[in-house]
């Protein structure tokens, strides 16, 4: 049996090949009755529209770019899945690129994706504001976890949840805290540090700031070693991966968690629930972050030149086993 084409579908339906083409490329120009008849026959024959050919008609690549700062960080897999699922429902594929924590690579990849994708999502970018504006000029673009006035953004705001984490530790008797800061180029790290400082000032407790540390397991181990040089009984790690490195370093030195130290992470990645002890953390709304970013980008693609959109989604504090009462020994 020969491969089905728009011509064989047209012959079966008694319409022109141009009408069949419009069903798949400009369905709003075709009556409901004809559209349903054509799509039913296409399904019966196993016809799949050619994306490249459709792109010549629509001017769309039906693909969006997704640049992540570090694909090895467990924050990203659930986010990537959410973006891919939403994009698929909206008729697009996703081209994933890892910037490997390099600001220069982010800008370079945006340039390379131009002309291959309809728009781009840049997740947790490390580039400067000026570099991001220049790279995204004329290209539909959404930033994830990085607000910029003239580019659309979707961010997870953990301020309230981190205040809740501080109150949780305070109720357990902790009065001396350490802030294990994340990468200096990370907006999220700066925002989280700002929230923790604000809580500590309001509570009148001691806060020792350490770092910045890379958002890696190794960076977490370095943060754990630095923590033990302080008198802090509780620590806020930049993210869950860093916190897991802290737990490993403390365990390797015979320091009990939460018996001797309490540790809080951020993001609630799978690792936070599987590590021992399970990690007290802040849950990021991954599904909503990814879905919102794709929806905003799709609106930009369909109506270029519109005003940037800015969305803030709150994180939620989750208490688990890595925090407990301050040791009195």
TrEMBL record:
<feature type="region of interest" description="Disordered">
    <location>
        <begin position="304"/>
        <end position="329"/>
    </location>
</feature>
<dbReference type="Pfam" id="PF13377">
    <property type="entry name" value="Peripla_BP_3"/>
</dbReference>
<protein>
    <submittedName>
        <fullName>LacI family transcriptional regulator</fullName>
    </submittedName>
</protein>
<feature type="domain" description="HTH lacI-type">
    <location>
        <begin position="4"/>
        <end position="58"/>
    </location>
</feature>
<dbReference type="InterPro" id="IPR010982">
    <property type="entry name" value="Lambda_DNA-bd_dom_sf"/>
</dbReference>
<dbReference type="Pfam" id="PF00356">
    <property type="entry name" value="LacI"/>
</dbReference>
<keyword id="KW-0805">Transcription regulation</keyword>
<dbReference type="GO" id="GO:0003700">
    <property type="term" value="F:DNA-binding transcription factor activity"/>
</dbReference>
<keyword id="KW-0238">DNA-binding</keyword>
<dbReference type="InterPro" id="IPR046335">
    <property type="entry name" value="LacI/GalR-like_sensor"/>
</dbReference>
<dbReference type="InterPro" id="IPR028082">
    <property type="entry name" value="Peripla_BP_I"/>
</dbReference>
<dbReference type="GO" id="GO:0000976">
    <property type="term" value="F:transcription cis-regulatory region binding"/>
</dbReference>
<dbReference type="InterPro" id="IPR000843">
    <property type="entry name" value="HTH_LacI"/>
</dbReference>
<keyword id="KW-0804">Transcription</keyword>
